[in-house]
């Protein structure tokens, strides 16, 4: 156990950043999901045109937020932080991922523990993993139960844009089949861990010559 935590410290120092960062507690350009749709709907109800309440925080939503902030004497930045959220929605912002920091840390620590475990097609245990078997097993240790295959996992949680990736997000790639056919766990600093067919469980860069062109999206389940 002591060696394991020593490895975690070395990992953090090697990557030059803390891999356990969490969300800033804001809604802004690029965010997606039902919370964004609720914000858009409220903006529309108040006469600030956010377009369709589709849950996609795009430029039109940014402009609507800025107009609302200007009208209410708030800082005009197009970002829905705690103050803007309270003024807009009439209640405090929901608890952010801050409360999930321990769970996210556990996911990252668990994933790193199995670095080097061999790849086994259909593998779902520490004796051997395939890609989705690995992500499913790791998240299950923190009480999050994912579907079995990569394409099914790509349908859970909420989508996350590339520039909003955070440690603990599921990342997906198109490898042996079109669509999401490979899954991994984002670690931070542009790196992710997954069960690869050539090296077993290993850490790679998101923008490497192999993985970069094959990236298809990410989902947040915690």
Question: Which features does this protein show?
Answer:
222 residues, alpha+beta, Muramoyl-pentapeptide Carboxypeptidase, domain 1, endopeptidase fold (from Nostoc punctiforme), 2 domains, six-stranded antiparallel β-sheet, two-stranded antiparallel sheet, 7 helices, 33% helix, elongated, disordered N terminus
Outline the structure in words:
- This protein is an alpha+beta fold.
- It folds into 2 domains: 34-89, PGBD-like superfamily/PGBD (Muramoyl-pentapeptide Carboxypeptidase, domain 1); 98-220, endopeptidase domain like (from Nostoc punctiforme) (endopeptidase fold (from Nostoc punctiforme), Alpha-Beta Complex).
- 33% of the residues lie in helices and 16% in strands.
- It has 7 helices and 8 strands.
- It has helices at residues 2-15, 34-45, 59-71, 82-89, 101-113, 131-140, 150-153; strands at residues 124-125, 128-129, 158-160, 170-173, 182-188, 191-196, 200-205, 215-220.
- The chain has a 6-stranded antiparallel sheet with strand order 3-8-4-5-6-7. Strands 1-2 form a two-stranded antiparallel sheet.
- Strand 5 (182-188) and strand 6 form a beta hairpin.
- The protein starts with a helix and ends with a strand.
- The model is unreliable at 1-24 (pLDDT under 50).
